[in-house]
Amino acid sequence: MHYALNLRTFFYSHYFYLGLRFAAGLVGVTLITLQFADMATAMTVCIGALCTALMDMPSPLRHKFNEMSASVLLCSAVTLLISLCAPYHWLLMIMLVVVSFAACMMVVYGKKSMPLQLATLFIMTMSMEHDMTVRQSFIHTGLFTLGAVAYLAYAMGISWILRHRIKQQVLAEALFELAAYIDIKADFYDARHNLTEQFNKLIRHQSLLADRQQASRDLILRAHNNARDAIVVQVHVCMLDLYELILSTHTDYALLRAHLADSPVMQTLHDLAYKAARDIESVAYDVTRKKSSYPEISYEPEMNAIEAELAAIQQRIDDGKPQQEALAVLRAQRNKIRAIIKMIGELHQASQKAYDTTPFWVDADMGPFLSQQKYEFRMILSHLRLDSPIFRFSLRVAMAIAVGLAVAALLPYAAHSYWIVLTIVIILKPSFSMTKQRRSDRIIGTIIGCVITALVIKFLNYPALILAILVLSTVATPTFIYLRYRYAAIAVSIMILLQMHLIAPGNHNLIMERLIDTFIGAAVATVFSFVLASWEYQTLPRLVREVLAVNLRYMQASFDLLQGKGKDDFAYRIERKRLMDSLAMLSSALVRMLDEPSSKQRAVEDINLFIVQNYLLVAHVAALRAILRRHTRELPAAAVNAMLADSHDQVVETLTRALDPHKADQAPLMTPMAADTSSVPWSGWPLVQRRIRLLQADAVKIIVHREAILRDLA
User: Fold this and answer.
1) Where does the Integral membrane bound transporter domain lie (predicted)?
2) In 572-697, which ranges are E strands?
């Protein structure tokens, strides 16, 4: 279950705060307007506030102002344009199609432009029913802009007041997702779970975790000017360091299961991971409550059990039983778990007070860690070509809206065309999988919302109660729109239908008409989801190349760090972030492809394995870094650096070969590591050598899976 759907955490999440802010702003703007004007004027002002509110998301203040200002300007322009065209039916139809196409082209600016696209299409559909004179159109647009500006001022003021609170909430969400990530890793120790399926689940969650960590970076690392901000920065950095330690715990789970299947130590390892997840959740829980966090979980019984098992395995080895490898793996896991427990303690400590220094970013440029906001018109122009997925999506939406309008004109009852159009623009998304999910949520949510509204009107038709339900649905709509759209669809259906009931209580066919219009819009959107479709497999070659290119840079940065060539780990952190982001994008594309028709699915198993092998390279590097840190005092630096340099050359050659199509058909060779290093009297050698061998072997496997992917995509 998502943490924000748990009542224990829901009311402290930024989703609930967003719902309250959204509802308070809309209701407040409407009530203030009603003091000076009639209901029609108040509704126009409210719609202006609503369009701006769609852009009200957790974001750095400067970005939020730019995004919401763009919504005010763009939606006001669309309102005026559609209002002026409304008296001329033929011109209105043309403009609706043109505006739909232009709004969808804004998707080139990335995920954050999606709410702006929705706001533009929403106000387009709301304005198409009004038949006004030129003077009335300008007055209507002025009132709309007034509401939009009023909500902009209100939202910026509230966001400034709550700027630290929002940072805490977004950081807590990243911590909750990290705890969920550990829960998945815990099940690797449970033989009831298939290792391959569990690894796929882990990689899928990695995509979500990367998104939450980026949201945390964007808010926290941009500005930290006081002691309260310093605390969230400390917790954020500890969280990222803890994440790397968790990556390093990847081991040979099959070997552990084979040698220790009858031992209770596997359940002990599972319990340790489960406790660690709950410990991290306790930090997140306290962060959302603006409290210092203190450790309350003891790991001592489990750690003692592991020590006892290590002693038992050592005894069996002394008796001549071949369990040396299992002993080494379990001992390595024990050491990593100790490091994780220590880091969780530092996570608690980081939440307690601001310290004088904070690692790794002093006098450093945070730009590479942060999302950049660039809105250049040439980006749209560069996508005005038929092979662009965004251009095809824009054409698809424009054609679907044209058909939706034509169908509405043929219906026997007085259909509201805007409801059909609104259903189309809400359901049709750039990818088939998103459209499929949104269609299901929209239909089910609308049906449930219509049933609830019918029951309210029939049995609870009291103005005060209806207003209370309206306020609740207004809070629920933005709360769940990014959390569970199905719940948002229920809330928005109740909200709009009750509003229409209050304005025109005599329309007994209102609910049935809305249902029919929703089904028509969903049917049109479904048909056009196959028109000029951009299937995910078409983007996979580019994503695979990006992963390889970023991985190559990551390997170069990581080996420089492991050999002590840099003064800090700043460059390594940047490349690690980029690699995890690129893997998350490829993983997300794979998940979306699995929702597409089976005839459009390509190389599913090989893409899975390709993602896994690249992920394993990160895990091996993290493990090497942990080992070298743990043995700093006894480290024979010259011998270690010689071995790392040799491995670096081989891994870089392998990844370069994978990137170069002319070299990919050459069999990658694994040259032996420096022969003289095995004689160095250091207990860490076997672990380092094992990790380097795994690193080289997984790098080689990347070429194999890449070639299989390209063959299937050809």
Assistant:
1) 406-527
2) none
